[in-house]
Every structure is written in C-alpha cells, then in structure tokens.
Design goal:
alpha/beta, 7-stranded mixed beta sheet, 3'-tRNA processing endoribonuclease activity, Metallo-beta-lactamase, Chain A, binds zinc ion, RibonucZ/Hydroxyglut_hydro, single chain
C-alpha cells in the first residue's frame, strides 16, 4: 500500500496570502503546504481521504487518473471545498462513492445542492453516491477494510480511518480510550500537529507526541501544520527518531 501526502498544511495553506512570516517566505519546497489530504493506493485501488480546495492541483501533481472513492473526515471547508473538481473522474468513471458521517453528507447536500439535484440537474455537474459511515461499523474499500476511528475536533466529531496497519487522523484534539484501542499495532500513524502553542481544537506538537507515545506505532508522520510550527528542516531535527514531519508530495510504502 502506498500513501501519498497530497497536502500537509492547516486550513489557510502555507504560504498564507499576504503574510510575511519567514516560513511563508521560505524557498524550501517542504515549507509549502497545500490543504490536508492523502491518496492511498494498492494494486488497482485508489482512494483519497478528504477533498479540499487544492484537490485539482493535487490530483495533477500525483498523477491520479482513477478514483474508487472519497473518504471524508469532516465537513470543514479545508477538507471538502474541492468537491466540484471531481468532474474529470465523473466523466471517465461515472458517479464517485463518497463515504462520510451522516451529518457531513447533510452538510454537503446544503453546500453543494446542485450536485444532489434530482430534477433538471445540469449535465456537467459532479455526481456522487453517498455512503454513511457509522462508528464501529468497518466497511470494505476494495479488498481491504476501513475501520472508522471516532475522534473529537473540539466539540465536533471527526472520523479518522484505519486500513490494515496504517491509520490517518487529522483535526484531532481528544480521543476516547475505546478509540485508542482501534489503533494498536500500527506500522504507520499519521496525526495532526498544528503548532507549539496550544489550540482549542487541534493537537499541538506536544499533544501529538504524547498521543504517539500512547499508540506506539512503528513510525508516525505529523500533518495539518501551521506556518508558526517553524521551518520543516529545523522542526524535523527536534523530533524523536520514529516521528517525521510529513510534507507535500511525500510518498511512503506500508
Ligand atoms: Zn482542517
């Protein structure tokens, strides 16, 4: 299984429009972060987790030509705003399955009403088939199983996903111990780490490292990163030897 980091930045991306911060001015490609998303492939199978505003650019960068489904974590715009850009996949494949919590499906129906139109739908509009994700109900992704992991982003419920020995959790602030049980014996855990300072709805760096210590994956990658966390090169040097800052276009094999 291959995991390609399509984007590793927090909601505004890095650089931020109009911001003079040294990390926003960095010439290191690893300091340029699109909105957070991953592409998971194995054999003929191809899935993305989330579909943010940079989706089109990300699909072009990674060379994805076929998509089996989109798995959504939650409804925030940095994770969903690219839904209109699935059309090239629709034109080749037909409707794209979308897995999400029922609350997220309802939200998408409001924000992308034209996608869900049943009368006189514009023929070029995106086309999706929604499938509700329910906690403690694993579902098939190709010949593998996705296990939903129920976590909290402040007061908002968010799904992470485990597939085989890989798990992806973003926009997490708290995780109930029953959900930690679903994350035992991982080869790779991806988890969000926004910045050094605490934040109301995201792990900061120390909380992410404490969570990694609790879960004990073989390796962990940090994502959903703010410019104020610092330069990629400098932050990476301070991390434990099995913890890595993810960066855009990084591909790992599990
Ligand atoms: Zn986010």
């Amino acid at each position: 299984m291959k995991v390609y980091f399509l984007g590793t930045g927090t909601s505004q991306g890095i650089p931020i429009i109009g911001v003079d911060h040294p990390v926003c001015k960095s010439t290191d490609a690893k300091d340029k972060r699109l909105r957070v998303s991953i592409w998971i492939t194995w054999g003929e199978h191809s899935y993305v987790i989330d579909c943010g505003p940079d989706f089109r650019q990300q699909m072009l960068s990674c060379g994805c030509t076929h998509l089996d489904a989109i798995l959504f974590t939650h409804e925030h715009a940095d994770h969903t705003a690219g839904l209109d850009d699935i059309r090239p996949f629709n034109f080749r494949q037909g409707e794209i399955p979308v897995y999400a919590h029922q609350r997220v499906i309802d939200n998408l129906k409001r924000r992308f009403d034209y996608v869900f139109e049943t009368v006189n739908k514009y023929p070029g509009a995106p086309s999706v088939k929604t499938i509700e994700v329910i906690n403690d109900q694993p579902f098939a992704v190709g010949d593998k199983t996705a296990i939903p992991v129920n976590v909290m982003h402040g007061d908002l419920q968010v799904f992470g996903y485990r597939i085989d020995d890989f798990a992806y959790l973003t926009d997490v602030k708290t995780v109930h111990e029953t959900e930690v049980e679903k994350l035992k014996n991982l080869k790779v855990l991806v988890v969000n780490a926004l910045r050094v300072e605490p934040h109301d709805t995201h792990f900061n760096l120390q909380e992410a490292l404490d969570f990694i210590n609790l879960v004990k994956p073989e390796k962990a990658y940090l994502t959903h990163i703010s410019h104020v966390l610092g330069f990629h090169e400098e932050v990476q040097k301070q991390l434990p030897k099995n913890v890595f800052l993810a960066y855009d276009n990084l591909e790992i094999t599990i």
